[in-house]
Amino acid sequence: MSSDADAPVDAGADSVEDLRAQVQALQEEVSDLREATDDDGQKSMTIIATKGTLDMAYPPLILASTAAAFGWDVVVFHTFWGLDILHEEKSKNLKLSAVGNPSMPMPNAVAALPFMDNVATSMMEKKIKENGTATIEELIETSLDMGVDLQACQMTIELMGYDEAEFYDGVTTGVGAATALQHMADADVQLMI
Amino acid sequence: MSTYEPTETLDVKGLSCPMPVVKTRGAVDDLDSGEILQVVSTDSGSMSDLKGWADSTDGVAMLEQEEAEEDGDAVFRHFIQKE
Question: Do A52 and A18 sit in the same domain of this protein?
Answer without folding.
Answer: no
